[in-house]
Amino acid sequence: MILNTAPAVAPKSSTAAAPAYRRARPTAAQTGFTLVELMIAVVVLGILAAIAIPSYTSYVNKSRAKSGSADLAALALNMENRYQLQLSYPVNAAGTVATTTMFPAWAPTQSAYFNYTLVSTATSYTLTATGKGSLASCVLTLNNSNTRTATNACGFTTW
């Protein structure tokens, strides 16, 4: 009779300690961010947004005002063209709205943000762009002697 001489191996119990490399693994309850970490991230994003949004809005408004000034310069070129052809400016009462019907060669790019008006006599003119909406206090003017003015609300005072 041959006897089994191999040592008896006890079955692993469920309470036996796991190897060290397995204990370092996070469980499902340990993954993700804590509420404090999430709230800190939200606060940081809020501070960045509070600084960035007003700066961006100011930049956009200044850009629109610069484009509005370019529209006035283009309108002035149309007025000067008429002067060269007729040796007088077209006569328009104060507050006359400048339209593409009056000046077919003029195509304002910022008409959604500015109202363009003019007053002119046979020898002089003054063109005005008055802002709308967020640019409501922005007023640009240009006259026949190329005097240009802008209010502080435009983001610049000379152009």
TrEMBL record:
Keywords: Membrane, Transmembrane, Transmembrane helix. The chain crosses the membrane at residues 38-57. Pfam families: ComP_DUS (PF16732), N_methyl (PF07963). One of its GO terms (biological process) is type IV pilus assembly. The keyword Cell membrane does not apply. This is Pilus assembly protein PilE. It comes from Kinneretia aquatilis.
